[in-house]
């Protein structure tokens, strides 16, 4: 009997309603009231300043809520238990017609998105395979082919709502398609473990 095996899968975690309504409302207010800079590619997407989660009680609360999930996710991703630190956060305001180009996050291991508003289906986060890599040079790409987890180039986050959190390896390319609905609010974060050890040497990481 033949058995198909998922070889080297990529971890991805969704935590439903991890943040309660009160905390989400306070974050929404903070996102809208904060000074924001326009995205380099469009004025319909803006970002708050980089936030040190330890400098404001609101973000301390967010970090404390999310860290247990990050710790669990990190064990799956790296195979060991670490002390994790959320080293930075920022909030995003995406207006109707705006989008976020594909990108990844440098200098971190686990990244996360906290959704702060109801999402129009057009703005569900898209994750993409990296350009190049170990795929075959030739590919089959026609209108009626059957896309699945082994050959699809993109994957869309399932329906999410306010208070939901997703965690993923920081190297994954991701973006948001053009917004066909109302204003979209989210909070992004990056996290690092306290150390990495390998065959006799150890690297310490501090934010």
Structural notes for this entry:
There is one protein chain. By secondary structure, the chain is α+β, with helices and mostly antiparallel strands. It has one domain: q2cbj1_9rhob like domain (Jelly Rolls), CATH 2.60.120.620. 17% of the residues lie in helices and 31% in strands. The chain has two helices and 13 strands, in the order βαββαββββββββββ. Strands 1-9-6-11-4-3-2 form a seven-stranded antiparallel β-sheet. β12 (195-198) and β13 form a beta hairpin. The mean pLDDT is 93.
What percent strand? 25-35%
What is the CATH architecture assignment? Sandwich
Order of helices and strands: EHEEHEEEEEEEEEE
Strand segment tally: 13
Helical coverage, percent range = 10-25%
Please summarize the sheet with the most strands: 7 strands, antiparallel
Roughly how many Å is the radius of gyration? 18 Å
Number of separate structural domains = 1
Distance between the termini: 51 Å
Q: What would CATH call the homologous superfamily?
A: q2cbj1_9rhob like domain
Mean pLDDT: 93
Q: What's the shape?
A: globular
Strand pairing plus helix content: what structural class?
Answer: alpha+beta
Uncertain spans: none
The CATH topology, please?
A: Jelly Rolls
CATH class: Mainly Beta
**In what order do the strands lie side by side in the largest sheet?**
1-9-6-11-4-3-2
Task: Provide a count of the helices.
Answer: 2
What does the secondary structure layout of this molecule look like, with pairings?
Layout: E1 13-15, H1 21-33, E2 36-38, E3 45-48, H2 57-78, E4 84-94, E5 100-103, E6 110-115, E7 126-128, E8 154-156, E9 165-169, E10 173-176, E11 184-193, E12 195-198, E13 201-204
Antiparallel strand pairs: 1-9, 2-3, 3-4, 4-11, 5-10, 6-9, 6-11, 7-8, 7-10, 12-13
